[in-house]
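I have been asked to look over a protein record a colleague put together. Thanks in advance; the entry in question is below.
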Amino acid sequence: MEVVKAESKPSQKTPLSLPPELLDKAASRLCWISILCAVMTVTLLVAEGILQPEFGRAFQLASIQLTIGLTVAMSLG
């Protein structure tokens, strides 16, 4: 996935007074963090289903499936 960044001027200040170079690095790291969150969510849910089989019925509920789907979708950005 390619992240398109806006050009920033070296003298441009943000409300938090962070240097533009730091903001550029933070934007690229945020992509990796969101992918990591999505992978960990799926991994932990699969592990929970294996380690606690009694929750198998709970995973079949539409509300739980919707919650899991929304969590993964939001993690992917």
